[in-house]
Amino acid sequence: TDRYAVIGNPVAHSRSPAIHARFARQTAQDIAYDRLPAPLDGFVATVEAFRAAGGKGLNVTVPFKVEAFDYCTHRSARAAAAGAVNTLAFRDDGVHGDNTDGVGLVRDIGQRLGFRFEGARVLMLGAGGAARGVLLPLLDAGVARLTIANRTASRAHELAALAGDARAAGCGFDALGSAASGEGFDLVVNATSAGLDDAAPAVDEAVYDGVRLAYDMVYGARPTAFMRQAGARGCPAVSDGLGMLVEQAAESFFIWRGVRPLTAPVYRDLRAELA
Ligand code: ATR
Fold this sequence. Notes:
Blueprint: E1 2-8, H1 16-27, E2 31-37, H2 43-52, E3 57-60, H3 65-71, E4 74-75, H4 77-82, E5 87-91, E6 94-98, H5 101-112, E7 121-125, H6 129-140, E8 145-150, H7 153-163, E9 168-172, E10 187-190, E11 213-216, H8 225-232, E12 238-239, H9 242-257, H10 264-274
Parallel strand pairs: 1-2, 1-3, 4-6, 7-8, 7-10, 8-9, 10-11, 11-12
Antiparallel strand pairs: 3-5, 5-6
Helix pairs in contact: 1-9, 5-6, 5-9
2'-monophosphoadenosine-5'-diphosphate binds near residues 199 and 201.
Catalytic activity: shikimate + NADP(+) = 3-dehydroshikimate + NADPH + H(+)
Subunit structure: Homodimer.
EC number: 1.1.1.25
């Protein structure tokens, strides 16, 4: 039995063990996957103890994704662009770090929700770690334009510059819905942490006009404030981020085991459990 875990603080409510247990059953992989709580000042010590005990890999969640990036000896292009790591694989030649959040977002939106990224005009709300983590996969998916809007405009400008891609541009919330935002968007992704207080980002609701899908990176038993905001403005499809959670887990599972689990049945189970 190979051992894996999710490390975080807090980690008690993580759904990752339930997801990976289902993947393992489905693909007949002999693994164990636990929760690994770490003190805020004890990330490295906790990881080293897990490795010393034979652990093969870790998922990394709040607030350790940047520390995990620093800890790696090898980093994927996705991890480098994100500046953060959510998947560690302990191998003979060192510690491999990857970031599966962005590909998880793109797969959930592209496959489960059937949204076509090629040529799409995308608005991302937020410019923190969550936004940065998904930037490269969104651009790689072939979007025509990626507008990063943030409450604090300077952070949006910085993140757009970091993307180093002519399709990416940053602005403040106040510049949205005005002439400055151009001809509108096909997809809006909420990467702010406003929802943690059950608040919607304070954007002009006109940004939702003509939008085909509004996607929140967080999830819950009830529609989030952002989903309610977009739905009230007539957005035809809204989703929370539960599917992203399942897809990023599937990509981690693939990195560790070389096998791709089916995500649709696991998504359905989790959704039913949340309700
Ligand atoms: P995370 O890792 O969740 O992205 P973060 O790096 O602290 O956390 O970034 C939080 C993001 O949510 C930022 O874009 C932040 O906007 P500011 O840069 O202006 O602070 C955004 N955010 C948090 N609370 C918000 C709110 N109530 N309304 C709008 N944006 C909010």
